[in-house]
Amino acid sequence: MTPRTNAHRLVTQVLAGEVCAPRGDRFGYRVDGGGRAFLLPGMGGVTLGVRVGDPATGHAADHLEPGLSVWHPDPAADHALQFLACVGNEVTVLGGRRPTGRVLGQHAYVLVDLADADDVAPGDRVALRARGQGLRLLDHPDVVVKNLDPDLLPHLPVDTAPDGRLRVSVTARVAPSAVGAGTGMASEFANTDLMGAPDVRIGDLVALLDQDHRFGRGHRAGHVAIGAISTGDCRLFGHGPGPTTLFTGPAEAFELVDDPTANIGVGW
Amino acid sequence: MSALVRTTLLGEVETPRLGPEPYLVDRDGAPYVPTATGGVVLGLRLGDGVFDVDGDHAAPGVTLVHPDPAACHALTAFACLGNEAVVRTGDARGATGRVLGKREGRVIAVFPQEVLARMLPADQVVIRAHGQGAAARGGVTALNIDPGVLAALDVGSVRARVPSHLVGNGFGRPAHQWDLDVQVDRADAAHWRLGDLLCLDDVDVRHNAGHREGWLTMAVLVHASSPLPGHGPGAMPVLCGPASAFTVRVDPTGHAGLTPELLGCPDA
Asked: Cβ of A76: how many Cβ atoms within 10 Å?
């Protein structure tokens, strides 16, 4: 059974953003963990050919951000956009055929999964219907939910187990030694880069063991953070495909079920 | 072997800054007002315990920045532990101190207490930078340390060994410009002191900091603890190589590490 929530108390706030142009510098190259120089696409802009459900790795890319990378050029408006956007929120590209997509996760930008992205270019404005921060699971007081659109929850492999724990299916359980860049940052922003990540797809639900993401991302023995993979290939050392946090709490509040099909795209 | 080049850098003592709301949120969800985060910090000295004060990332002495962001990156990248720091303006003009380390985009420099008492935010300080670019010896890379100090430091003795999963903020970042925060509690690390050497197991910092089995990073504690999740006492890497290249002796009680005398800055 889908857990009971306070979704009826959550309102929608319409946010504006724009597709951010990919950024470079005149020196071009960056350096990988083996000391080799590389120059690859990945962050920012419109990235075609990789969508929710596709493999996160295997691409010639660095910090692969699937779909649209959205920000706001005003720093305070950008903070609001990054912190309030939730996985599953509807996004409309303003212009052309007005295609709509969904937020698939956060990185340094809000990432948007969009079927009809061929006509979208950097600089295009988007409208985002933000709803989800403040969501609570009424029968799971120890579990903190964040970055999740309440309308996506019934489509996720998440329910209340007979013993009262929150049962969540995940494709992988990740040891704390894999946690790289992103630790120490707010858990409503960006994601947790995994070093030596398991074989995952964009949108896969994964459990990070011994991680507490209630008030930011950090290590805490006996806690769990569960998220959906939002970024793919990374060549920078200490980085890797990473999940946007959705649920976190003490390990005993969860029943984890291993399921290779656990992916947010099931309910897309 | 190429000779190291000396450069003269200009920094200024950081002006502490806060947003319109003074509170941050600690790892247990409690709000706190961050204190002693940069600028001129009195009452904390090299050799003090990293849990002796209730600040946030408090470092002994002063932190140095440059108002131009690119120049600040260069200042942080090239300043090395042990480099001479000369006050160029203000009431302490002409006084000398030493670079202790760096922390996320700023340099930490220590001075004799009577000099520190005369320093103010925005005082200019010249750094005589020397050390980056040192050739690897015996498979071990040196970084962030003046060759003269490295030669005098007993790098076989450490206060503690740290498993890589406790490294928080700093993973995925360039270790030539950044320290590694260790996610420990007072109960684990009340005996750690500023200036101590730590051995970070399975950590490679040569081309960004990250997890690599079988590699070691030796790092010097340069700032005290932080209540933020994913943060903690900060250790600046100075040596990195395969574990087989090191003989590590853990000495929880007798370890001396980097003393003011060894640094050439008595009464720091």
From this structure: 8
